[in-house]
Amino acid sequence: MSELNLKKGIYVLPSMFTSGNMACGVISVLFSINGDFTAAAWMLILSIAFDMLDGRVARMTKTTSEFGVQLDSLSDLVSFGVAPSILMYQLVLNTMGKVGIAIAVLFVLCSGLRLARFNVQAKDGIVHTTFIGLPTPASAGLLISFVLSYELLSAQGQVLSFKTIPLLMKSMPAFFTAMPIVMIILSFLMVSNIPYTSFKKFKLSKPKVFQVLVFLIFLIFLIVVFPQNVIFILFLLYALSGIVFSLGKYWKIFTRLNSRNNQEEKK
User: Fold this and answer.
1) How confident is the model at residue 201 (pLDDT cuts 50, 70, 90)?
2) Is 245 within a domain?
């Protein structure tokens, strides 16, 4: 029995949030073209907020629909595929000639493929506990949060008047240099079969509520004090989490097979 029934029709409330997501993506593109990279990045953070809300509003009001799924993917392609690609091209890739163009196009193409696969999976009507491949908002979020942190540096490499994490800010020039490679890795992670945690069905058991509440309060405190840096760290950790868990899974399989072979040899 499916847990999520996709209905036909257009529902105004969730569609407004989804449209807000797309609108912010378009505005971000315009900011990027004009060279206002900080404003472009913040618009995409707002897109992520809209993207988080539209699905939850649809499920809470029981107005999930096929139209909403399609509109959501189109909005995500604009906001988390095209917009961050243009942002990174204008900031990082435009000095690399055809290679820079190829990386920007690759990121958009992989975003589109990731979203098309998500649409096919959504047709089964089940809210999955994991995503297959890195979600496009998370992939874009890593690039966006990098821009927000990098833009805190002056032309001389000095940190402007914001509260930042010194060790991370010292690494920003290195991240800048590595961003073309990071974009390629993110592109392939989006179309990979690596599972990533989905928080859509996340439920707390009573014994863990207090610990999670304390952790969330501490996390919010860090975001308030070091907003750009902490957001970057969170997206980076999420992108790495799928790789780490997959490697751990394969390592367990390898050790089991190795142990079994050793036992058979002893016999």
Assistant:
1) low
2) no
* 180 is a domain residue: yes
Closest to 44 in 3D by CA, of 91, 8, 5: 91
- Residue 112 sits in a domain of what CATH number? 1.20.120
Task: Specify whether the CB–CB gap between 68 and 14 falls below 8 A.
Answer: yes
Question: Would 258 be classed as within a structural domain?
Answer: no
Structure tokens at 121: 């999976």
d(CA 171, CA 177): 10
The pTM (predicted TM-score) of the whole model is: 0.82
Which residues on adjacent β-strands are paired with residue 197?
Answer: 130
- Band the pLDDT of 223: cuts 50, 70, 90: confident
Query: What range does the domain containing 54 cover?
Result: 12-238
> Does residue 109 or residue 258 have the better pLDDT?
109
Distance, in Å, from the CA atom of 127 to the CA atom of 221, rounded to the nearest integer, reads: 31
How many domains is the chain built from? 1
Question: Tell me, what amino acid is at 103?
Answer: I
Residue 1 banded pLDDT, cuts 50, 70, 90: very low
- For the stretch 34-85, pLDDT in tens is 999 999 999 999 999 998 887 777 777 776 677 777 888 899 999 999 999 9
Question: How many whole angstroms separate alpha carbon 236 and alpha carbon 240?
Answer: 6
pLDDT value, residue 3: 44
